[in-house]
Amino acid sequence: MQSLDFAISVENRSTILHFSGCLCSENLSELIPRLEKTLRANPADLVIDLAGLAKIDDPGVAVIATLREKTVARGGNFSMRNVNAEIGETLTFHDFDRYISGERKPLPGKPDLLSRLGDNTYRLLLDNVSNLTFLGATIFSFFDIVRHPSSLRKNDTIDYMKKVGVDALPIVGLISFLLGLIMAFTSSVQLQQFGANIYVASLVSLSMTRELGPIITAIVVAGRSSSAFAAEIGSMKISDEIAALKIMGFDPVIFLVLPKMFATILMVPFLTLFSDIFAIAGGLFVGVSMLDLTTGGYLNQTIETLDLFDVYWGVFKSGVFALFISWIGCLKGFQVTSGAAAVGQATTSAVVSSIFMIILVDSIFAVLLTYWG
């Protein structure tokens, strides 16, 4: 730590303070009491000599400003001398002259409730306009692909199918296996009391194929792929690659969005089927190892419980989830304005929005299924 020294002299009825060293925050605790004592015992006019001063920080500037204010308040004159270029830049940076004269820059006031309400409403309207614009562009591009299938970037679509589906299979399988295992273990505690161990197979298979399998798969894909889509498109936007595509005559939605959406919609239903199989395997492991069930008996009970409608229903829901996951991920990427921080916010928002939409859509499907049958 660099030390601070100051000396006092009196010239022509003026007090001269000679600072040397570092006028910094770590040295001010001992300096301020000595300065106050010096000002009371010497003439009112004050001159600050900074010839030996090597460094000054924000609190140091505040000390000099306070000395100026106290001197003026006592009716004395204040001046500084031997201010080198570096110290002068620091004083200029802090707008020293305006600060000590009391002309401080006004701080922005805190907006009132009405202003915040208006600002949030305006932002919400802008977001909705952006969402509708992107939705319209996606729909028109989809019909354009239907009329001209060759315009779809097939190699990119296959590459995204690998990233969304094949690469996610290990984590989806492991989570589903553990989930089936947990469900079988917890339900067996109650069913064993009634000698109904065999119904563990019914509970696991029905709950996984109808509800948990599609939801768990969709959440995993949202965490992996939706955030990746947002980060990829967001990074391209801040580096002006999307603007370059437009200049070259490419439609960014057809070029970037539709391959991701097609790949996700094609692969998530398959992942859901694998999730169902791994969850049933987890329940089978508990049934055989802890509940004295046979493998054939467990699988027969699973087949008798499930209808094809249950499997189709779960696969259909997962396809709808995939549509929203990919669409939201791409939308958040296009909403990035500038900077790496905005890309990070877009990825986080993509995951949160996707999971919220998955739960919302699943709730709607649950109500529809109840009234349907």
The tally of helices reads 13
User: Biggest β-sheet, characterized?
Assistant: 4 strands, mixed
Helical content, roughly? over 70%
Q: What is the beta-strand fraction?
A: 5-15%
Q: Termini separation (Å)?
A: 78 Å
The class by helix and strand makeup works out as: alpha/beta
Strand order of the largest sheet: 1-2-3-4
What would the average pLDDT be, to the nearest integer? 84
Order of helices and strands: EEHEHEHHHHHHHHHHH
- Report the uncertain regions: none
Overall shape: it is elongated
Question: What is the count of β-strands?
Answer: 4
Whole-angstrom Rg: 35 Å
Question: Would you give an account of this structure?
Answer:
- The chain has helices at 28-41, 58-73, 85-93, 96-100, 113-147, 154-166, 169-191, 199-238, 241-247, 252-290, 295-305, 308-334, 340-372; strands spanning 4-11, 14-23, 45-56, 78-81.
- The protein is α/β, with parallel strands linked by helices and 373 residues long.
- The relative contact order is 0.09.
- A four-stranded mixed beta sheet has the order 1-2-3-4.
- The chain is elongated.
- Strand 3 (45-56), helix 2 (58-73) and strand 4 form a beta-alpha-beta unit.
- Helix 5 (113-147) crosses helix 10.
- It contains 13 helices and four strands.
- It starts with a strand and ends with a helix.
Give a concise summary.
With 373 residues, the chain is of the alpha/beta class.
Structure keywords:
373 residues; alpha/beta; four-stranded mixed sheet; 4 strands
Topology:
Blueprint lengths: L3 E8 L2 E10 L4 H14 L3 E12 L1 H16 L4 E4 L3 H9 L2 H5 L12 H35 L6 H13 L2 H23 L7 H40 L2 H7 L4 H39 L4 H11 L2 H27 L5 H33 L1
Parallel strand pairs: 2-3, 3-4
Antiparallel strand pairs: 1-2
